[in-house]
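User: I'm putting together a teaching handout on how multi-component assemblies are represented. Below are the sequence lines for each component of a complex, exactly as they appear in our records. Could you produce the 3D structure of the whole assembly as structure tokens, so the students can see both representations side by side? Please keep the chain order the same as the input.
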Amino acid sequence: MVWHARRRLSVMEQMKRVSDANLRLLERERRFIQNASHELRTPITVAIGHAELLQRSSDPTRMAADARVVLDELMRLRRLSDRLLLLAAADDPDFLHKKPIEVEPVLVSALQRWSPTPRQWRLGTTDEAMVDADADRLALAIDALVENAVKHTTPDDWIELSVRRNHKVEITVADSGTGIERGDLDRIFERFARSDISRARDSEGLGLGLPIVKTIAEAHGGTLSVRSDVGKGTELTISLPLAVGVGEGAKGSPTPTPMPTHSG
Ligand SMILES: Nc1ncnc2c1ncn2[C@@H]1O[C@H](COP(=O)(O)OP(=O)(O)O)[C@@H](O)[C@H]1O
Ligand SMILES: [Mg+2]
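Assistant: Of course. Below is the structure of the complete assembly, with chains in the same order as your input.
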């Protein structure tokens, strides 16, 4: 009897845990839809306002300025919808077109694309590393990390791209910028979660960059992690499995200074 009662209790506890987890998931979805609707509505409202001004105005200078605002807001909407579509596509079976690729050239071409932006650009450790990856998606993920690094640094700061190979492949974008508050570290991978520091300083971000990087990393069977220290800088690392059939043969890499860590 006691055994049956205990078993029933444990089944009930299990059911409660599952239903709690479902509730949390539903709540997250609800917040996501609410945030997405809000982010979509703002540029639409601004664009409508300026289109109405445009309609009423006859001064060419003012008309050009209003048209510019409408165009900017439409571009923002397009960026937002592209990113939302990409996040939604992650569940499709053909989200990735993987083939074995060498990581270093992907980093080098990212550096070449970004080098016109005045920062102290560095190529750090570049271990030879093959991954089974979708080169375009991987480039997009690295680009989003570099874009963030640029946003949170000044021309005097350095930004370093590196790839380390041990039992997995670690692609890191590190910077000597503002850093992220400890309390924000576990939120920045959430959709539309932007830390207070950024919200105060710029209104441009959509808060979808890191969720996209995380989605791309996970679709490859990998992870995204962050280490950061306010005032010292930030390090974001995409860890991917080594390409199948590639031995371990780890290369040594210097031990980094410890910083608060979060894995998402
Ligand atoms: N390299 C970085 N340095 C400092 N803060 C960062 C860095 N990368 C990301 N963050 C923080 O994480 C938040 C989320 O990043 P992201 O998802 O790319 O959104 P967005 O760039 O649109 O704000 C940013 O708003 C910022 O606060
Ligand atoms: Mg970003």
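A couple of points students might notice: Helices lie at 2-56, 60-89, 103-114, 135-151, 196-201, 209-219. Residues 99-263 form a domain with the Heat Shock Protein 90 fold (CATH 3.30.565.10).
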